[in-house]
Write a structure and sequence with these properties.
Elements (H helix, E strand, L loop, with lengths): L2 H6 L3 E4 L11 E2 L5 E2 L4 H12 L3 E5 L5 H9 L4 E3 L5 H12 L6 E5 L5 H4 L4 E4 L5 H6 L2 E2 L8 H12 L3 H16 L1
Parallel strand pairs: 1-4, 1-6, 4-5, 6-7, 7-8
Antiparallel strand pairs: 2-3
Bound molecules: magnesium ion.
């Protein structure tokens, strides 16, 4: 099946964090606290997905307070942190949200994402993902992780669903509402 046809069925986008929503860099302080940067373009992409009626979720092996804050700001529905078995989290999400696996997309960058991308309807790899992730993905981004890959993946889904003109309109209405 073509990636566009897979994308048409998507109702939820799940994302990895390190190397996907970030470029993989970690600034580690002596007390072990870590600092990462997120790309604003990806944040807007997640908002666009929500405006298209597509839900979002995060499955990450690590835990951080900053991520909780970021997920809250972006109104991400499912936040699963400290996860060793991402496939198990996917099953929990499918059950809770009552979605079929064909209705869920996942984007990742490294071997920890391999088992989960084999399970979802639409698998995405960031541009600088491990070759095994690229090989098993339906859509390989041209942008690297933390530099707009998630945005690219989301826009691909919205475009495949032929929602792009409507979402652009909704986005500018959203900005107007925020102003007023
Ligand atoms: Mg990763």
């Amino acid at each position: 099946m073509k990636a566009e046809d897979r994308a048409k069925k998507i109702k939820m986008i799940l994302m990895d964090v390190d190397g996907t929503l970030t470029d993989g860099s970690l600034l580690v302080f002596p007390d072990g606290e870590e600092l990462k940067t997120y790309d604003v373009k990806d944040g807007t992409g997640i908002l666009l997905a929500h405006l298209a009626g597509i839900q979002s979720g995060i499955i990450t092996g690590k835990r951080s307070k900053a991520l909780e804050k970021r997920a809250e700001t972006l109104r991400i529905t499912e936040l699963h942190q400290g996860i060793l078995d991402k496939k198990e989290s996917l099953q929990q999400i499918l059950k809770k949200q009552n979605f079929q696996k064909e209705e869920v997309a996942y984007i990742g960058d490294d071997l920890g994402d391999l088992e989960v991308i084999k399970e979802v309807g639409l698998a995405g790899a960031v541009g600088d993902a491990h070759h095994a992730i690229k090989k098993h993905s339906h859509f390989v981004c041209s942008q690297p992780g933390g530099k707009g890959a998630v945005r690219e993946f989301i826009e691909f889904i919205i475009t495949s669903q032929k929602l792009w003109p409507e979402i652009k309109k909704r986005y500018f209405e959203f900005l107007e509402r925020r102003k007023g």
